[in-house]
Amino acid sequence: MCVQAINQQCDFIEHDRVSGFWTWLFVLSKLPELGDTVFIVLRKQPLIFLHWYHHITVLMYSWFSYTEYTASARWFIVMNYCVHSVMYSYYALRALNFKPPRSIAMLITTLQLTQMVVGCAINIWAHGFLQTAGKNSCNISEMNIKLSIAMYFSYFVLFARFFYKTYLSTNARKGKRPIQVTASSTATSGHQYIDSGSSLTGKSDVQSLLAGGQASSKIKAQ
C-alpha cells in the first residue's frame, strides 16, 4: 500500500486527471509565451538576453519533463502559474494605460527570484530522495535534476542582475533605467537611459533616441 501510494504521488499526471490537464495546458502555454519575443523582434525593440533565453529554455525543459512525467514538475508548474498570473495582470494594466506603482514591478521580480531559489531547493531535495529511496522510486531522472538546477540557477543570476540594474543601480535610483539600443551601421550602439516610467514602444521611439543623440553630437561639434 505504501509503495502504491508513493507511485501515485510520483505519477500525478496519470493518476490525477485534474493535475494532468493543467500540466498539459502549462506545457502548451510555453508556445504562445514565445509571442512576447516575436512581437519585440517584429517591432524592432531592444531584445535582452534574459528574455529569449528564459522563454526558449523553459519551453524545451517543460516539453522534456512532460515526456518523463517528472514528479517534481508539479511544484514548478504551481509556482509558475502563480507568478505569471501576477506578472501578466501587471502587463495587462500597462497595456490599458494604467500606471501601477513601481513597487509592483519590484514585487514581481522578487517573486521570480524566490521562484528560482525554491526551484533549486526542490531539485536538491529530489536528488536526496533518489539517493535514499532508489533511482527507480519516483518519476524523475538524474539528468532532469541536473538540467533543472542548472536552468534555475542561471535564471537566478540573470534575474538578480536585472533587479540590480533596474532598481538598485545609480541610474535606477535617479529614476532612469538602461536600455541597450543597437543602431544601424550609420550610428553607434551603446546604452541609452530613459525614465523608468516610460518604455520603447516601437521603431519610431528608437529612431527618436538616435536622432536626439545625433542632434546633441552636432551641437557639440559646432
TrEMBL record:
GO terms (BP aspect): fatty acid elongation, monounsaturated fatty acid; fatty acid elongation, polyunsaturated fatty acid; fatty acid elongation, saturated fatty acid; sphingolipid biosynthetic process; very long-chain fatty acid biosynthetic process
InterPro entries from the UniProt entry: ELO_CS, ELO_fam
Compartments where found: Membrane
GO cellular component: endoplasmic reticulum membrane
Topological category with respect to the lipid bilayer: Multi-pass membrane protein
Domain of life the protein comes from: Eukaryota
The protein's enzyme class: transferase
Transmembrane regions: 49-66, 72-93, 105-125, 145-164
Entry's EC annotation: 2.3.1.199
Coiled-coil residue windows: none
Record's catalysed reaction(s): a very-long-chain acyl-CoA + malonyl-CoA + H(+) = a very-long-chain 3-oxoacyl-CoA + CO2 + CoA
Keywords (A to Z) from UniProt: Fatty acid biosynthesis, Fatty acid metabolism, Lipid biosynthesis, Lipid metabolism, Membrane, Transferase, Transmembrane, Transmembrane helix
GO molecular function: fatty acid elongase activity
Family affiliation: Belongs to the ELO family.
Protein name: Elongation of very long chain fatty acids protein
Organism: Anopheles arabiensis (Mosquito)
